[in-house]
Write a sequence for this structure.
């Protein structure tokens, strides 16, 4: 399969020598080759050249995405919500974004950028998780980005996450407690995709971010505030929750308590 | 998910485009495509899948911009075979002779000067450490061609370094 005389430069086994060099030969093939190579100066020279080539490539040649490029890519991706089968009208149009440059974008992209930076540049400490969920919330409030699945029925919202993330988030309808479910979407928090459930209180949107954690951990609701948004964080049943909203702190705590109590 | 492979995607885009801005454009486009199509992805190798998208985006961009890159090396295999000529007869001290020449920008230039098919094969093998089979699938090329491209790429690198060293 690899007897290219012109490439081989005098021996048709040179590409086999290379294959061995690249770890592509099995033991039997390698043994066969070794027998040949012992008597073939061309193959031994080839081996030396391969080693030189690799030596040349030992430098710092890998080009990982620089931080600024990464931030810009992620910022743009965060604007491109994962596709929802139930919302084809929101299909992303490449042209729209192709014309955009980061410098001309407003607060939404700025927030997304900030979120991306926090996600991937800073270590995902607890404090930055708060920042991240707030940024995720703000980002989602941009037109058209709140829900990927638009439904008040938890039996629609919950299965929507199947196959989109690697865990099944609990979905509860709290309409009776004045927190009706409005839908859900995917988001990125702590460097991984998480579920975001969308609830409403009067005219206020409440995002509930859900991310799996080690089983057994329990954290009682704790409140934080960031840029005018309230965040309530708790852990139960192997899931970490962050409720984020601009509703009053007490109402958000009420939401958290209601969620915890509702089976 | 494809995000963990962002560095790999950038690496390939950067080496294919040889220009930071062009690489970022390609990366942006590829990541958007990847995310858009990811719900339909059923394979087991998201990195290979993403790299393929990057490659398509890069080739598309080259075609749009110039078309120069897309012209295969003249006369393909034959010329490549001639270009790498015959192996050295030994005598010079190859093990150590090249090491001093091994500074980053020098090697970068050499890789950048390779024809794009050789360059991508070399980058996928040596920097991304993909197997022959993975490279063959990604570039939609027979394994035998992957092997000869890789061989030519390496030979050209070593030879160019040797010649430069002689000249200096």
């Amino acid at each position: 399969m690899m007897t290219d005389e012109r490439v081989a430069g005098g021996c048709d086994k040179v590409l086999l020598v290379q294959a061995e060099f690249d770890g592509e030969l099995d033991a039997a093939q390698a043994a066969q080759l070794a027998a040949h190579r012992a008597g073939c100066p061309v193959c031994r020279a080839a081996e030396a050249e391969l080693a030189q080539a690799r030596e040349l490539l030992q430098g710092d040649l890998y080009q990982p995405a620089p931080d600024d490029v990464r931030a810009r890519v992620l910022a743009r991706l965060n604007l491109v919500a994962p596709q929802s089968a139930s919302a084809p009208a929101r299909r992303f149009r490449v042209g729209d974004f192709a014309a955009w440059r980061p410098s001309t974008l407003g607060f939404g992209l700025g927030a997304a950028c900030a979120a991306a930076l926090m996600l991937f540049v800073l270590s995902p400490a607890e404090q930055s998780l708060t920042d991240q969920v707030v940024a995720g919330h703000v980002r989602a409030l941009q037109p058209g980005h709140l829900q990927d699945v638009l439904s008040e029925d938890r039996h629609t919202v919950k299965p929507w996450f199947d196959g989109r993330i690697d865990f099944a988030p609990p979905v509860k309808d709290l309409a009776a407690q004045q927190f009706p479910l409005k839908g859900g979407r995917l988001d990125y928090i702590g460097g991984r995709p998480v579920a975001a459930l969308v609830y409403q209180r009067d005219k206020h949107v409440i995002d509930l971010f859900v991310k799996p954690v080690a089983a057994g951990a329990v954290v009682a609701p704790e409140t934080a505030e960031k840029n005018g948004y309230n965040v309530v964080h708790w852990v139960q049943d192997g899931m970490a929750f962050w409720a984020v909203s601009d509703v009053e702190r007490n109402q958000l705590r009420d939401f958290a308590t209601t969620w915890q109590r509702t089976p | 998910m494809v995000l963990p492979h962002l560095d790999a995607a950038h690496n390939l885009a950067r080496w294919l485009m040889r220009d930071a801005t062009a690489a970022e454009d390609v990366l942006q486009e590829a990541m958007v495509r990847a995310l858009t199509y990811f719900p339909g992805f059923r394979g087991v190798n998201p990195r290979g899948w993403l790299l393929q998208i990057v490659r398509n985006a890069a080739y598309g961009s080259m075609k749009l911009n110039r078309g120069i890159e897309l012209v295969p090396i003249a006369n393909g295999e034959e010329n490549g075979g001639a270009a790498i000529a015959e192996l050295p007869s030994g005598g010079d001290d190859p093990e150590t002779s090249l090491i001093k020449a091994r500074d980053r920008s020098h090697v970068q230039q050499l890789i950048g000067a390779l024809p794009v098919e050789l360059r991508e094969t070399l980058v996928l093998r040596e920097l991304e450490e993909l197997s022959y089979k993975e490279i063959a699938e990604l570039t939609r090329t027979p394994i035998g061609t992957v092997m000869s491209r890789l061989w030519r790429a390496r030979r050209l690198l070593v030879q160019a370094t040797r010649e430069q060293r002689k000249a200096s």
